[in-house]
Amino acid sequence: MRRIRTKIILAIAICSVITAMIVGGVSIVNTRKSEGAMALEELGSVGRLKSQEVNDIILRVEQSVNTLSDLVAKSLDEGKFKQNKNYADEFTAAVADVTDNFAMHTEGAITCYIRYNPDFSNPTSGIFLTRDSLDAEFDSVTPTDFSMYDEDDAAHVGWYYIPVKYGAPIWMDPYMNENIQVYMISYVVPLFAEDGTSIGIVGMDIDFGQLTDQVDALSAFSSGYAFLTGADGTIIHNKNIEMGQNLSALDKSLSGIAGVLSDESRAGKNVSYSYQGKKKQLSYYNLRNGMKLVLTAPEEEIYADSLHMQLVIGLTAVFAALLAVAVGVAVGMSISRPLQQLTEIIKQTAQLDFVPTKGGSKLRKMKDEVGVIANEIHIMRNSLRDIVSSIHQTETNITQNVDDLNVLMQENSNRSEDNSAATQELAASMQLASANVADIVEGIAEIKKNSGLISQLAKDGRQDSQVVSKRATEMEEKSKASSAKTNGIYEVMKQKSDQAITQSRAVDRINELTDDIKQISSQTNLLALNASIEAARAGEAGRGFAVVATEIGDLAGQTLQTVENINSIVGEVNQAVANMTECITGMMSFLEETVLPDYKVFMESGGRYQEDAESFIRVMNQVGDAVDIMDSYVSNISDAVQDISGKVSESSDGITVIAEKSTETAQNSQEGYMTLQESRASIDALKEIVKRFRLS
């Protein structure tokens, strides 16, 4: 029993230790994550706040210079500026007080200047205000003489030409003012005319300490600090490293940091790195002047609170595991004791001893699983007692039943022989019925074959009717096309014939004209006659006039003859027109009364032909559907007859089998009788087994 108790104690101890380790491990991991995340968030929050403060200083400088540049650009007359070099000096005097006011109210300003394009102004034109400290007043000094330096001399005039070439407001790199020993950083705004011509610049030099003091004041945890770099990782300000050095050149482990600073997507995110053998975390933030504010701190300081919490959780988990082991030992002892008592009861049962035990009732009263097991064992022992008693009673009953069964088996054997003879006669009848069903199946197969031929003829009829329908459709379409074409020709011919008949009526006007000419000829002839009479009266003096009258009379006669000829020709034309009119009228009547109605009848015949073809298709479809239905019925009948044939065959086979089985049953009955004799010997053996059980 020690082994069971040991296993229970070990199981409890192992589970307790594993649970403590899991809970402790999860707690440590979650604590490290949560505390680390909070620490990193604190680091980022400090960086974001300080970068905002530095950006505010830069923004105020930008706003001051931008406002001053807007004022200068709006006040400057571009036309006068380009035409008169002295205009720049006049304009400078006008804005001098305003410039001084902007310089005084700009945080960290050391110098303030307005310079003009030397192509349109004098070499020293402009404003240059400067002071030695942030507490002093601004003094106006003579600006740098552009004529003394070349445009490429960045050391002396780069502050002017670099912003102009850049074409937009720009923050210049920090530089040391040797005169006052102050690092300064410049913000310059270039000015341009509407046509893009450079006018000049407006700028201020800011004490770089205004920014670096804010950066140096930033701290994180115990030794974390901030510094300024360029986009390429060049140190611009670091209280521990000289300006101008690159991070990748300081230590090989920092080569990756330079790449991080150039990746804008990493801004504000924490990055792990190592420097001089110490693990650190950093995050950077973009400033408005193009610099990077970098905040760094050692990981051991960032995760210090997390490590302390992890240690406390680990010690707590160890203590909990030890306490669980101690509790497990006590629990194991309390579990193993009643199990030992249950084992003794089971051993007694295994020896077929069902006499009630002394401690069994106490075990059955327990409210845990041991009590359940004890009750189940008690029930099992009572059941076994009842089973043994039942076996004894059953042994007596079996002996009596075996005697009765012996008589019944003998009777069954006789009846089985009679059943075997009857089933053999039934099998012969079923075989004859199966042969008749086979003949029916053959006849139905022939019907199904003929039905298939009819179905195929119906399908062919449907296809032929579809061809006829297609031809009827084509004939109807052609009839419609020809009828339309004939109607068109008829309308054109009718229009032209009506026009020709109308035009033929113009011949009547010729008759009217000839009548007019005849009337004129008569009047002319009468006039010639009167002239001849008057000429005769005049005597010799009227002879010449008489000749003229004679000629006029001849002309009138010729005119009358010509008119007669025209009338003859007009008569022939009228006859021709009448004949043509009669011909055209007859042809139009033929088209209207014969051709067009024939086309109409032809189209109606084509339509009826189409309807007959469609009716034929419907009939053939109905025939085909009826044949399909009949074929389906024939198939169903064929399948049913085949099923009947199969069932008859199966029944015949089954009856044959029954006959065989009846014969076998008779044989088995005889064998059963022998088995009964053997059962008597088994009953005697069962009596001996019952005697081995102790019930009281």
Key features of this structure:
six-stranded antiparallel sheet; 696 residues; single chain; flat; alpha+beta; 13 strands; seven-stranded antiparallel sheet
Write up this protein.
With 696 residues, this protein is α+β, with helices and mostly antiparallel strands. Helix content is 72%, strand content 10%. Strands 1, 2, 3, 4, 5, 6 and 7 form a seven-stranded antiparallel sheet that branches. Strands 8, 9, 10, 11, 12 and 13 form a six-stranded antiparallel sheet that branches.
Quick take:
This protein has 696 residues and is of the alpha+beta class.
What is the SS-derived class?
Answer: alpha+beta
Radius of gyration: 67 Å
Strand content: 5-15%
Average of per-residue pLDDT values: 77
Order of helices and strands: HHHEEEHEEEEHEEEHHEEEHHHHHH
Helical content, roughly? Answer: over 70%
Q: How many distinct beta strands?
A: 13
Count of DSSP H/I helices: 13
Contiguous uncertain segments of 5+ residues: none
Cα end-to-end separation: 30 Å
What general outline do the C-alpha atoms trace?
Answer: flat
Largest sheet: 7 strands, antiparallel
What is this structure's SSE topology?
Layout: H1 2-75, H2 78-83, H3 87-104, E1 109-116, E2 126-130, E3 139-140, H4 154-166, E4 170-171, E5 175-177, E6 182-192, E7 198-207, H5 209-216, E8 219-220, E9 224-229, E10 235-237, H6 247-250, H7 255-261, E11 271-275, E12 278-286, E13 292-298, H8 299-302, H9 304-350, H10 360-364, H11 369-504, H12 506-538, H13 543-690
